[in-house]
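ugh ok so i messed up the first submission bc i forgot one of the chains. this is the corrected input, ALL of the components this time, i swear. 535 residues overall. if the numbers dont match what u have on ur side tell me asap before i send this to the collaborators (the ones from the other lab, u know who)
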Amino acid sequence: MRRLLNLRPDRSSRLLLGILPFVALLIVYLLASNLRLTENPNDKMLPAIVTFADSITQLAFHEDKRTGNVILWTDTAASLQRLSIGLALAALGGLVFGILTGVLPYARAALSPLIAALSMIPPLAILPILFIIFGLGELSKVVLIVIGVAPFVMRDIGMRVGELPAEQLIKVQTLGASTWQAVVRVVLPQMLPRLIDAVRLSLGPAWLFLIAAEAIAATDGLGYRIFLVRRYLAMDVILPYVVWITLLAFVMDLLLRMLSRKAFPWYQKP
Amino acid sequence: MNMISVRKVWKEYDDQVVLENVSLEVKEREFVTVVGASGCGKSTFLRMLLGQETPSRGEFLIDGKPLPDEPGPDRGIVFQRYSVFPHLTVLENVMLGLELERAPLLGKLFGRKRGEVRERAMAMLDEVGLHHARDKYATELSGGMQQRLSIAQSVIKQPRILLLDEPFGALDPGISADMHKLILRLWEEHRMTIFMVTHDIKEGFELGTRLLVFDKVRLDAQAPNAFGATITYDIPLHVTSHKVLEELENAKAQTERFTDGLVAA
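and heres the new structure output, hopefully the right one now
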């Protein structure tokens, strides 16, 4: 008998093992839900599958009587728009300032302490300030995501630039490059896949900030909906929304990973 | 006329003296090999020639003028590692130097101009034997091929001085022999002045027209950093033109074939 640490599952058993915990979780839910519903058919805590199906059909495929919109899609579109604008701005700002502080010692001396200090501010603590300055509209939510994510991206990219072998920057100077040319031909192209990594790591915090902002002041959005129906203990809406948000985050992560693999084949580790 | 003059150069870091009182005159087209124990400042000396570091005292002159205090296109460099760009293909790595020169804003050429540069880069790759690998990413190459690439990348810029910092130190001995042939050929064809730091004395003797040894003249066991290294030997090596060597080899082979023929008969 070989040691346990040398035993490896093959492809199909790996798949099976991966699915198993999900199935177990589902079974536990179904049993618990069934138990509660037989005791009290009006229980709202753990709705039956049929109830979920009804709510999902209502939210995803029927127009809302009051607004004429299909709620799930309106919410999704609103949230994704805020999230993607916020993430794009944070990535762009992070890239520019990260490269600036990574390449130029003078920029590093002037900006790094400030960025380090700013990144320590809990973004949610200044959400009220954002609402006061930028109003309750789209802007304050986007700004919250930018403020929450950009300092991390800046510091990460700054460090990644520092990790480039010094030999590369010397070499490109002996090939006649100016500072600008060294940035656009050597530093920037090598930072792009690392930027994708940084954005992937920021997806979690970005969703957190988005949902927090939507919960406090919004008229649509996935976070808004969850907190709205909380008053009615509408678990049949909240749980599908949570699953949907998780799925969206997963797909975004997957797309970014595919983009990195497609656009930067030299960056992929074997 | 001496091309490079080094006048009473010292290099000190805080209380550590690395180099003391180094003076040297080098003519155009010399192949200077530099050997010495590790920590004897031979790499520091090379970095000062490169402009990556400045001397604490004394001066480096090139054609009678002070050496620029930052790296530039007149002095090419090949490091032991990490001097090819992993995000570019082999061909793009070689094109880079020419593109930087012709496209100040983007450092990248398009269309017909790119075609011209591409032609020259292909010829250069032919010269170093990397033509077949031109579409691979630089990091897909073996160590020896990466060094060939790094050399090609520098030589295509036609630098007057080529600096080599232990370029073959990390390679298998079998590969080094091929690399020696390559570097001698390029040295002849492109009429460069070469400085090469190596830890392999044999290599230093084989390649150079002149061998410098860096060593500490004074040693103090109580204060090992108090004294720096300087040039202790400066040995002219006359017959190293690889053409002459080749002729000798050919002549020898011819004679051997002749005598073998006699024995067989």
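quick check: The beta strands of chain B are 2-13, 16-27, 31-36, 57-62, 65-66, 75-78, 161-165, 193-197, 210-216, 229-236. that seems consistent at least. Residues 94 and 153 of chain B are 5 Å apart (CA to CA).
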